[in-house]
Amino acid sequence: MEKSSLNDILKKAEDENTVIYHGETRDVSKWMAKSRFLYILHIIQKVFQDQCYRL
What we know:
With 55 residues, this protein is mainly α. The chain has helices spanning 6-21, 28-34, 36-54.
């Protein structure tokens, strides 16, 4: 297993995020595993927006 620098990992996650964003792949679970933190932030944002709309 090759070692990756933090920058490489972040760049890869960013690239995959772009691919997902533009709808060119449906392998969301793979992206989520690598970018779980961003995914959790996304969910929190969604929930927060839903709560705001209800008020």
